Each structure stands twice: as structure tokens, then as C-alpha cells.
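Entry 0007
Protein: Sugar phosphate isomerase/epimerase
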Amino acid sequence: MVTALDDRPATPATVLGAHHPVGASTGWLRDAGTWPAQARAAAAVSSFAAELAALSLPEFDALEAWLHTLPPLPFRYLSVHAPVKELDGDEPRLVARLAGLPAAVRSIVVHPDVMADPAAYARVGSRLVVENMDDRKASGQGVDDLAALFAVLPEAGFCLDVAHITAVDPTMELAHDLLDAFGPRLRQLHVSSLVGGEHAPLTDEDAERFRPVLRRCVDVPWVLEAPAA
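Output (C-alpha cells):
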């Protein structure tokens, strides 16, 4: 059941506690160990939604092998974050592997700045989800950047990373522009703060700053990229 954000003073607890579903990215659960252990740690946060974050190609190798064993997982919404580091340059093979992930994976999140041939990703179909980037990347932050990708990937969805917005536009107006342009494509949010360029637990300041944006995103999972507190 989706719960609208109320008008109490915004804190991480009130903002996150007002929403269902919230899930966890395994990006901050790597210390749990193997992929099965990371999935169990994510399920302890939420059995509804999770993102299995294979940010390097070696991590993806292990995740892909594990997912093809068809493990029983509790999540109603399961996404995989595609690798963005230690890539081997064989983009067609990576795209084929992403497209071949089991059907239990509902969404496959990609970074636009590492897509050398965006059109090649069309074979991933409607499971492909493009994430907006922060200011450290060469592209993928604004409406024009993402519109060009969606023009060649008409089935793709959108992942709004609210922390990435703060690095580009602290006023958060860019988030509203992206939702105006791509709201019908929205599949999930990445929710955290950015501290020193790293994802960190949501701060009181960001809870207040993000709330108008989050009010527009109550119908999709919010994936935490850092602990809730």
C-alpha cells in the first residue's frame, strides 16, 4: 500500500517511513560476503524490493552465475545494477548477458556514460532502466542527454537518483524537469545523501530538500543506497 508523505517535519525516519515499498541496494551490503549473503542482508531491510549491485565486471560474473541457479528469493521487485567498472570493452557480449538474465530480474539499471553504443541495449527491452548521473560524469545528467538515449531505446525505463541531482543542481529543480520529461518511464528511485562524493545515509537537510520530489514518486520502489540511519 502506497502511503503519501505527510506534512510532519521532514527527517529520514518520517520521509522513508511514510513510503512503501522501500528496498536496499547491496552496494552498501558488500561486507555481508557472497551474493546469497548479500541478498539475505537486503531481505532483512525489505523483503519487497532489492537491487543487486554488481558495479564491476568481476562482481557481475559471480552474480550472473548465481542468478542462473534460480535461487528462491523473497523480493516482489528485483533489479540488477549493471557493471560500470573494470569493463573489458566487449559491449555486445555484456549486453547479451544482461538480456539473458532470468525473468525474476525485473529491471536492469545502466549508467548512460558507459554506453558506447546505446542502440545495442535495445535487445534488453523493457527491463533496461537508465539512471541519471552526477557531476563527475561526462554525460547523462540532464533532460537532453537522457532524451537522446530514450529516442533510441523507446522501451527503456528511468531510475531517478535523487542524490546525483544534488551534485548537479542543489535546488532540485532538475529532478522536477526529469520527472516532467520521463515520469511515465519511472521504475525506481535511488535514495541517499552524497557526502564527499559517496552515498551516505539520508540527512535531515536532504530529507527536507528531497520531499517535494519524493511526493511525485510514491508509486515506485525507493532503493536505499546507504543505510536508513
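Curator remark: The chain has a mean pLDDT of 92. The radius of gyration is 17 Å.
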